[in-house]
Give the backbone structure.
Amino acid sequence: DIARTIIEQFEKDFGKNSFEVRSVETVGPKIGGELRRAAVLAVLVSLLLILIYISWRFEFRFGVGAIVPLFHDVLITLGLFAILNLEISLAVVAAFLTIVGYSLNDTIVVFDRIRENLKSRRRQKYDVVINESINETLSRTVITSLTTLIVVAVLFFFGGEVIHNFAFALLVGVTVGTYSSIFVASPILVEWERRLEKRSAKRGHSRAK
């Protein structure tokens, strides 16, 4: 019994009455597997709820445009953990959920400006409005991300080994999330609009025949 061996060693080194064992917990492979499944389920459920909420507040295309970058951010961060052979603990899972929330917040700021500009600039082309909206929110996105990265970098270098993987996940996630909110989310809207225009053009052409 590992716990008994540790207690006996403590008793030899420090004496029997010098410490108190309040609890002994064991996490086996089965429980570890359950924790992993629960973590994956938590991420998937959160993404589904986000899709539903954004589709309700904006449009379905905005919901898809927000969800795809979140998968992008989590998969890249998870891939780096796999390449570097880093441990994925519950703290790292919490970091993944934090990345999802942070990236989503950046994307929503851009999408909100796009929605406002689409209403006020109806004569302009769809892709032009989106490009201008990104430029209008770019400084805010970059400055917010830089200040966040400074804090996370301090945690990574000076926070100790306990939160090292947590801080590393946030470093990667915030960086990738900033990129995806600008270069992944909005282009999805543009491509969606182009496909809709092609479909409507085909329908109009078939009716003309």
The two ends are 83 Å apart (CA to CA). The chain has a mean pLDDT of 85.
